[in-house]
Design brief:
The protein has 211 residues and is of the alpha/beta class. Helix content is 32%, strand content 31%. 33% of the residues are buried.
Protein backbone atom coordinates (compact mmCIF):
# COMPACT_ATOMS: atom_id res chain seq x y z
CA UNK A 1 0.00 0.00 0.00
CA UNK A 2 2.83 2.38 0.89
CA UNK A 3 6.37 2.57 -0.38
CA UNK A 4 9.57 1.59 1.40
CA UNK A 5 9.84 4.98 3.10
CA UNK A 6 6.89 4.18 5.39
CA UNK A 7 7.92 2.14 8.43
CA UNK A 8 5.11 0.71 10.57
CA UNK A 9 6.19 -0.77 13.91
CA UNK A 10 5.33 -4.46 13.89
CA UNK A 11 6.00 -5.09 17.57
CA UNK A 12 3.80 -6.51 20.36
CA UNK A 13 4.89 -3.88 22.88
CA UNK A 14 3.93 -1.02 20.57
CA UNK A 15 0.55 -2.63 19.77
CA UNK A 16 -0.17 -3.31 23.45
CA UNK A 17 0.74 0.22 24.59
CA UNK A 18 -1.25 1.83 21.78
CA UNK A 19 -4.34 -0.17 22.77
CA UNK A 20 -4.09 1.21 26.32
CA UNK A 21 -3.69 4.73 24.92
CA UNK A 22 -6.74 4.37 22.68
CA UNK A 23 -8.95 3.51 25.68
CA UNK A 24 -10.81 6.70 26.65
CA UNK A 25 -10.64 5.71 30.33
CA UNK A 26 -6.81 5.84 30.40
CA UNK A 27 -5.64 8.58 32.77
CA UNK A 28 -3.64 11.64 31.75
CA UNK A 29 -0.65 10.32 33.72
CA UNK A 30 -0.70 6.91 32.01
CA UNK A 31 -1.35 8.40 28.58
CA UNK A 32 1.58 10.79 28.93
CA UNK A 33 3.92 8.00 30.06
CA UNK A 34 2.83 5.76 27.19
CA UNK A 35 3.48 8.50 24.63
CA UNK A 36 7.05 8.71 25.92
CA UNK A 37 7.51 4.92 26.03
CA UNK A 38 6.27 4.37 22.48
CA UNK A 39 8.41 7.32 21.42
CA UNK A 40 11.44 5.46 22.76
CA UNK A 41 10.51 2.28 20.89
CA UNK A 42 9.96 4.05 17.57
CA UNK A 43 13.18 6.06 18.04
CA UNK A 44 15.01 2.74 18.30
CA UNK A 45 13.86 1.90 14.78
CA UNK A 46 14.18 5.41 13.34
CA UNK A 47 17.85 5.62 14.38
CA UNK A 48 18.82 2.26 12.91
CA UNK A 49 20.94 3.98 10.25
CA UNK A 50 23.00 6.12 12.63
CA UNK A 51 26.66 5.78 11.58
CA UNK A 52 29.15 3.97 13.80
CA UNK A 53 32.88 4.29 14.29
CA UNK A 54 35.43 2.23 16.22
CA UNK A 55 36.66 3.09 19.69
CA UNK A 56 39.43 1.46 21.65
CA UNK A 57 38.43 0.61 25.23
CA UNK A 58 39.64 -1.58 28.05
CA UNK A 59 37.19 -4.08 29.49
CA UNK A 60 37.81 -5.76 32.87
CA UNK A 61 39.44 -8.54 30.82
CA UNK A 62 41.44 -6.90 28.04
CA UNK A 63 41.84 -4.06 25.57
CA UNK A 64 39.57 -4.20 22.54
CA UNK A 65 38.05 -2.11 19.75
CA UNK A 66 34.27 -1.76 19.75
CA UNK A 67 31.62 0.21 17.81
CA UNK A 68 30.35 3.54 19.08
CA UNK A 69 28.17 6.27 17.57
CA UNK A 70 30.13 8.38 15.11
CA UNK A 71 28.88 11.57 16.72
CA UNK A 72 26.79 12.70 13.77
CA UNK A 73 24.70 15.71 14.73
CA UNK A 74 21.05 14.99 15.44
CA UNK A 75 18.00 17.05 16.40
CA UNK A 76 14.42 16.31 17.39
CA UNK A 77 11.78 18.87 16.40
CA UNK A 78 8.33 18.58 18.01
CA UNK A 79 5.29 20.18 16.40
CA UNK A 80 3.71 22.17 19.24
CA UNK A 81 2.06 21.38 21.39
CA UNK A 82 1.30 17.64 21.27
CA UNK A 83 4.71 16.81 19.81
CA UNK A 84 6.29 17.79 23.14
CA UNK A 85 5.00 14.51 24.58
CA UNK A 86 7.39 12.53 22.38
CA UNK A 87 10.56 14.52 23.05
CA UNK A 88 11.45 12.86 26.36
CA UNK A 89 11.32 9.38 24.81
CA UNK A 90 13.64 10.43 21.98
CA UNK A 91 16.10 12.12 24.37
CA UNK A 92 16.22 9.06 26.61
CA UNK A 93 17.48 7.12 23.60
CA UNK A 94 19.72 9.88 22.18
CA UNK A 95 20.62 12.13 25.16
CA UNK A 96 22.98 14.33 23.12
CA UNK A 97 20.28 15.37 20.62
CA UNK A 98 19.38 19.05 20.36
CA UNK A 99 15.75 20.17 20.37
CA UNK A 100 14.04 22.63 18.03
CA UNK A 101 10.38 23.69 18.19
CA UNK A 102 7.75 24.49 15.58
CA UNK A 103 4.40 26.05 16.50
CA UNK A 104 1.49 26.26 14.06
CA UNK A 105 -2.05 27.58 13.90
CA UNK A 106 -4.76 26.60 11.44
CA UNK A 107 -6.47 29.27 9.32
CA UNK A 108 -10.18 28.98 10.14
CA UNK A 109 -11.23 29.73 6.54
CA UNK A 110 -8.69 27.84 4.45
CA UNK A 111 -7.88 25.22 7.16
CA UNK A 112 -4.24 25.51 6.10
CA UNK A 113 -1.52 25.44 8.81
CA UNK A 114 0.75 28.45 9.29
CA UNK A 115 3.98 28.61 11.30
CA UNK A 116 3.80 31.15 14.14
CA UNK A 117 6.89 30.02 16.06
CA UNK A 118 10.15 28.32 15.11
CA UNK A 119 13.21 28.14 17.35
CA UNK A 120 16.10 25.94 16.25
CA UNK A 121 19.72 25.20 17.18
CA UNK A 122 22.03 27.51 15.24
CA UNK A 123 23.58 24.60 13.32
CA UNK A 124 20.25 22.95 12.46
CA UNK A 125 21.12 22.70 8.73
CA UNK A 126 24.02 20.38 9.60
CA UNK A 127 21.88 18.00 11.67
CA UNK A 128 19.79 14.94 10.90
CA UNK A 129 16.20 15.78 11.86
CA UNK A 130 13.34 13.80 13.37
CA UNK A 131 10.08 15.76 13.41
CA UNK A 132 7.71 14.36 16.03
CA UNK A 133 3.93 14.61 16.46
CA UNK A 134 1.60 11.97 17.97
CA UNK A 135 -0.90 12.03 15.10
CA UNK A 136 -0.59 12.18 11.31
CA UNK A 137 -4.17 12.93 10.26
CA UNK A 138 -4.66 15.16 7.17
CA UNK A 139 -0.90 15.65 6.97
CA UNK A 140 -1.12 19.44 6.68
CA UNK A 141 0.97 20.25 9.76
CA UNK A 142 3.59 17.62 8.99
CA UNK A 143 3.98 18.83 5.40
CA UNK A 144 4.37 22.43 6.60
CA UNK A 145 6.87 21.42 9.30
CA UNK A 146 9.00 19.51 6.79
CA UNK A 147 8.84 22.47 4.40
CA UNK A 148 9.99 24.78 7.20
CA UNK A 149 12.99 22.55 7.99
CA UNK A 150 13.97 22.36 4.33
CA UNK A 151 13.85 26.17 4.14
CA UNK A 152 16.47 26.13 6.90
CA UNK A 153 18.76 23.89 4.83
CA UNK A 154 17.96 20.53 6.46
CA UNK A 155 18.38 17.57 4.12
CA UNK A 156 18.00 14.33 6.10
CA UNK A 157 14.51 14.58 7.63
CA UNK A 158 12.36 11.86 9.19
CA UNK A 159 8.83 12.07 10.55
CA UNK A 160 7.84 10.09 13.65
CA UNK A 161 4.21 9.65 14.78
CA UNK A 162 2.27 7.26 16.99
CA UNK A 163 -0.79 6.83 14.77
CA UNK A 164 -1.21 7.73 11.10
CA UNK A 165 -4.12 7.89 8.68
CA UNK A 166 -3.56 6.78 5.07
CA UNK A 167 -4.63 10.27 3.94
CA UNK A 168 -1.85 11.87 6.01
CA UNK A 169 0.80 9.47 4.76
CA UNK A 170 -0.22 10.18 1.15
CA UNK A 171 -0.12 13.94 1.74
CA UNK A 172 3.42 13.78 3.13
CA UNK A 173 4.62 11.45 0.38
CA UNK A 174 3.09 13.64 -2.34
CA UNK A 175 4.77 16.77 -0.96
CA UNK A 176 8.05 15.29 0.31
CA UNK A 177 8.82 11.93 -1.25
CA UNK A 178 12.32 11.92 0.26
CA UNK A 179 11.10 11.80 3.88
CA UNK A 180 10.87 8.52 5.77
CA UNK A 181 7.79 8.12 8.01
CA UNK A 182 7.92 6.04 11.19
CA UNK A 183 4.62 5.22 12.90
CA UNK A 184 3.25 2.93 15.58
CA UNK A 185 0.12 2.06 13.58
CA UNK A 186 -1.80 3.00 10.43
CA UNK A 187 -5.52 3.39 11.15
CA UNK A 188 -8.58 3.16 8.89
CA UNK A 189 -8.87 6.81 7.88
CA UNK A 190 -10.41 10.15 8.84
CA UNK A 191 -13.94 11.06 9.91
CA UNK A 192 -15.85 14.15 8.74
CA UNK A 193 -14.09 16.27 11.39
CA UNK A 194 -10.63 15.19 10.29
CA UNK A 195 -10.02 12.94 13.30
CA UNK A 196 -8.28 9.60 12.85
CA UNK A 197 -10.58 6.55 13.17
CA UNK A 198 -10.40 4.65 15.47
CA UNK A 199 -7.53 6.87 16.60
CA UNK A 200 -7.03 7.96 20.18
CA UNK A 201 -8.75 11.35 20.31
CA UNK A 202 -7.03 14.72 20.66
CA UNK A 203 -3.50 13.76 21.69
CA UNK A 204 -2.64 17.23 22.98
CA UNK A 205 -5.65 17.35 25.28
CA UNK A 206 -4.95 13.85 26.56
CA UNK A 207 -1.25 14.51 27.16
CA UNK A 208 -1.75 17.80 28.99
CA UNK A 209 -5.15 17.16 30.61
CA UNK A 210 -6.85 20.07 28.88
CA UNK A 211 -9.91 18.21 27.70
Amino acid sequence: MFNEKVHVMDHPLVSHKLTIMRDKSTSVKDFRELVSEIGMLITYEATRDLPLTDKEIETPICKTTMPTLAGKKFAVVPILRAGLGLVDGVLRMVPSARVGHIGMYRDEETLQPHVYFAKMPTDIAERDIIIVDPMLATGGSAVEAITEMKKRGCKNIKLMVLVAAPEGIKAVQDAHDDVHIYCGAVDEGLNERGYIVPGLGDAGDRIFGTK
